[in-house]
Amino acid sequence: MQKKRIFSGAQPTGRLHLGNYLGALKNWVALQDEYEAFYCIVNLHALTLPQDPRTLRKATLDLARIYLAAGVDPEKATIFIQADVPEHAELTWILLCTARMGELERMTQFKDKSQKGGREGSSVGLFTYPALMAADILLYQTDLVPVGQDQKQHLELSRDLAERFNRDFGETFKIPEPFIPKSGASIKSLQDPAKKMSKSDENEAGAIFLDDDADTISKKIKRAVTDSGTEITFDETRPAINNLLTIYQLVTGKSEQECVENFAGKGYGQFKGELAEAVVEFLRPFQERISAYDDDALNTILKTGAKNAGSIASVTMHDVYQKVGIR
Known about the structure:
The chain is 54% helix and 7% strand. It is mainly alpha-helical. It has a three-stranded parallel beta sheet with strand order 1-2-3. The protein has a two-stranded parallel ribbon with strand order 4-5. The model has no long low-confidence stretch (mean pLDDT 92).
């Protein structure tokens, strides 16, 4: 029985943090055994904001190393760089001609990301970003897309564009479904549990970065905000302690009951100390593996991945061009 296909990707911008690992990478590793997995470094998306070319090239390879160090297996999953498969850009143009201005104007991420420079000063690429994301997904006739709550709107647009194209030109694209993990989908900031842990947060104390050393991790966790009350339990009405306990559960693999029982009668100080130790031990093997792949080995993996991805993308693109009357 043929496996369902799953697609996801991350931008090579900023430093990845524990929330990225627990909310995405950890799930990718689990999903590669069950699905035909395509994991992309979406470097074209990075161009929606100004980038230094040399920094972007290095960050792209560094992100590929992170995928591998996290446990993504090139024997099980296709790992590739977005720009190495030109069909991503080609399909984006077709989908932009299918999309409506009103649809793109309703995208909340554009509103959020354009606030700093203002709408008039934002790039057109930032505005049309969701069409590129739709192309990423639809090129591979994707069945499932792991998404956080902040990306659900973009996936809905992908579905809408696929359905509209199919209606106007004939059955072409598979309609993708969202895959939202039950736990770890949204790790919150250590300093403001009302916000997601973010690599772009101005306050670096809110995020545990994957390359933080043990001392830095310990300091950040000890300074993490807590709620009123002393009981250490899972409680959504106390978001700060709920977030910290969720992190502990995810890095140790313990059940909710085991976590609560472990900290029964203990104070916040002891809890934070044990949490810091658990996070350091969780990241230690990852940090040791990160340097295991030299550039030659990495480029071989990425070249093979791009060839595999391109063989599928080219079939989809040929069909699309025939349907719209170009080829």
